[in-house]
Amino acid sequence: MPEIPTTMKALIVKYDGYSGTSEGPAIERLSDWCELSEIEVPKPKGGQVLIKVGLANVNPSDLHYIKGEYGQPRRKGVPAGFEGMGEVVASGEDEAARKLIGQRVAVSASRGGSGVWAQYALTDARAVVPLHPKLRDEDAAALIVNPMTAWAMLDLVKKAGARAFVMTAGASQLGKLMATLSKEMELAAVATIRREEHRSLLEGLGVGTVLNTEREDFEDMLVMAMRQVQPTVLLDAVADSRSADIFAAMPGGARWVIYGKLSPQSPALPSLGQMVFMKKKIEGFWLSDWLATASPEARREAFEKVQERFVSGAWKTDVAAALSLPEAEEKLGEALSGLNRGKVLIRP
Amino acid sequence: MPEIPTTMKALIVKYDGYSGTSEGPAIERLSDWCELSEIEVPKPKGGQVLIKVGLANVNPSDLHYIKGEYGQPRRKGVPAGFEGMGEVVASGEDEAARKLIGQRVAVSASRGGSGVWAQYALTDARAVVPLHPKLRDEDAAALIVNPMTAWAMLDLVKKAGARAFVMTAGASQLGKLMATLSKEMELAAVATIRREEHRSLLEGLGVGTVLNTEREDFEDMLVMAMRQVQPTVLLDAVADSRSADIFAAMPGGARWVIYGKLSPQSPALPSLGQMVFMKKKIEGFWLSDWLATASPEARREAFEKVQERFVSGAWKTDVAAALSLPEAEEKLGEALSGLNRGKVLIRP
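Output (structure tokens, whole complex):
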């Protein structure tokens, strides 16, 4: 095992706490929110592990966070980055943490740890997942946030007794994962897109109904699709007035499950009739809650199933770019502007 | 038993279906929506019963309905009126219906029947409740919609594991019923009012915290109250931006249960953080659903407990006026304008 240096390069957060704004997950320059610094390599204690980061992911939640618009307050001076992969190189004294040393793992950040947009990251042993030897680094770096969300949300759809669901932002990485998973789980999917060129991609993955929210005939197509497919769960990454239109067109008993906010728009609360007479419900989904409340067995099963799908080739993380830390500071905003072409990763 | 005439006087609905408007439950003149007519007395079949109406209630849902803004389409030419009391004078051939003949009952309208703003009303045997002999006619006429809603919603609060709740429109009849019930059930209540003179009334009924939404210091008082009382269910008859403010100020895990829409305003959907990170939920409550899905035992228990409270004097229906059918056609709008002084009833 190579020696661990005293200092490391990291993209650290520039501000503390919440910004009070609500602009959504878009940035022009990363340097507005993070700066590349040489800081001390953190030391793991107790149940913590230190990971030499191989590849780090960039998710909308990272952008929400560095802008001070996420559900957790920013910690100034601490590296950003919620998700990545690497090798465990040190641990605290706990047995479960020590056992992980030398293992190749997927990493998610934990409270009290430090982010993965850095050469080394500190997290809880419970927040890392040992990897299948055949899993590619690119897939490993994006193993938790999107695939586990896809898994957990379709699990929710199934447990709700639904036979069909709607997903917004269908052409996103998460949308594509849910598309293939829905086919396996025999759930009928309706996906929304904003550009016509994404239609054939989703249809190819098995999505039965693709609706373009930007087309003039959207509302007619929506009403027809909802009548035919009768989806009863809306998995929503956008939460704008289009989402509200979809929810309103869904049959009685429908659930609107909000898990992201790609739009800064605030739609109006649905009408009384929707909530009272049609028994519709609105709720949120947060992977961290799911992971925190799922049983160890359910977690293990989910991680295994998710990795199997990547190893078999059913799932694949499309990568648009892999930037070094200095490159990321300079041109991450630009690289992200073509989000649907694939993931932008950081290679510290 | 007196003979049943062939025709009767009734306030019949003037229009069919939905209006597409959303103005809320206020009317200027009843004659804009209903007209007094001489129509045939309906004949009960199967499980139906015919009631000679003693007193009929006027609820916000009746006004929503006659205006075409309710969850059920209007039926032109059929008497309006969802709730009242009277005597069962005829029945269809079903045993359960026949057993009710001669009984004094509370009535709620049923699909396929006819409303109680008429000398006779047709409904399902399942939609009538035999009355305690000591229950006053005024209390019987308002036995189902408000008292059963109060009972069923506080049952929901209790089953949600909440120790405290918020109710909007606290000075309404329903609010007063929930106030006394919350005291018995040892639930801490926060009530909103719009006029300062209602404060002492609610405090007298045992409401620990009364917030005036029209006062300039409302938002400060709200934040303080939510911190102190930590209510986790919002029982909401208003669904305006004040309700949204209350929901936003409530602790994590809070449920916004909408059961009425006194305001025509549409507030914005709560923020992502509220739904996702704070695990809040929005849903509706409709008594008809509760009655349709509750077990016969749960229904019976609820009706007994509710009647006991009126007989003992713990609950009381305050009556502002009792109008004949011609008087109602002419001046119901006017009589309703002072809603919080008490119920307006119709005596056909």
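The mean pLDDT of chain B is 93.
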